[in-house]
User: What shape does this take?
Amino acid sequence: MTILLFGIAKDIVGSPTLSVPTSSITGKKIPKTVGELKTFLSGTYPELNKLSFMAVAVNHNYAEDHEIINSYDEIALIPPVNGR
Assistant: This one.
């Protein structure tokens, strides 16, 4: 699954996009919900935890933590505008 990154999230990751595995080759749990994706990303990129807020959009709509995500969804991380 590919995630689009904006603002400080892009700076933290070092790229405007990020690929998250959709199969468990690594043995790590595959994110299936927005909340699991946030947990996965904060574990992989601890600097994201310092942000006061991180919105996730799925297919151009803001998504809640319980919403299911799929590998074909367009996912975007939207940090606070001021970066904190």
Q: What stands out?
A: The chain has a mean pLDDT of 88. The radius of gyration is 12 Å. Helices lie at 7-13, 34-44. The first helix runs from residue 7 to 13.
